[in-house]
Amino acid sequence: MLINELSKRTGVTIHTLRFYENLGLIKGKTDEEVKSNKYKQYDESLIETINWIIASKKAGFTLAEINILIQDWFNGNLTLIEKLAIAKKKINEVDLKIKELKEVRRFLLQAKKDVENGLCL
Amino acid sequence: MLINELSKRTGVTIHTLRFYENLGLIKGKTDEEVKSNKYKQYDESLIETINWIIASKKAGFTLAEINILIQDWFNGNLTLIEKLAIAKKKINEVDLKIKELKEVRRFLLQAKKDVENGLCL
DNA sequence: TACAACTATAGAGTATAGTCTATACATTAA
DNA sequence: TTAATGTATAGACTATACTCTATAGTTGTA
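Structure tokens for the assembled complex are given below, as produced in the milestone run.
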């Protein structure tokens, strides 16, 4: 598909998609047979990749971190053991973030309870 | 306490503390009786405020969002009902972030299982 | 064929959150 | 008392992640 379709199907603007492509997060390829233009074709599988990037960003990972993971995981020559190690490490990082969020939640809940009990902060 | 102590007790650099003070997140006051300098005194309670800022940042809130919350909550003239509404809204936002993180975790766990089962991606 | 809409590249501009430097003055320990 | 350390202000600089503009060429439709 062309960039316009990729943009519409992911909800990511064309500008941002090109920004990601420059960073190496995604890659389109120009059709060798078509000589009249340099339009890039983007693979169907990029939809999933981009959704994964969006989710990872929401999870607090930087594009640099996501990029390293993508390069290693999909394009790198990693052994099974190395892939397992990366997955475990990332899961631990996510767990830590969840833990931190739960602490913030506890703080908010306490504040709410204090208000309810008339103990205005 | 002076800024150096506040920095040491929170782990936040003096530069960043001043940056926060410029944004209005924290506030020190110069001792009126001491005329020889303009050194600011920071209240003990700021330790908790700063820890709360750090936690909120980790939770993915921007300094602008945190600032609004602090201004409203601690300095604003909010009714009990308004405070309750704010607390509920923030708790919902945190819950959403936790949900998103759990999705990323599921993705990572699946990837890990795929590797373990020899289904290298 | 005219022209609106799409694609590509390069580079400028913006927002957020620091981080660092320069300058000036104050405090404290040797 | 002087040198090191601490404090204040202002402003420059950096990194991240976009976001927009300019320019040029391409495609599709009336």
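The interface with chain A takes residues 52, 55-56, 58-60, 73-74, 80, 83-84, 87-88, 90-91, 94-95, 97-98, 100-105, 107-109, 111-112, 115-116, 118, 120-121 of chain B (CB under 8 Å). Chain B has a mean pLDDT of 90. Further analysis is deferred to the final report.
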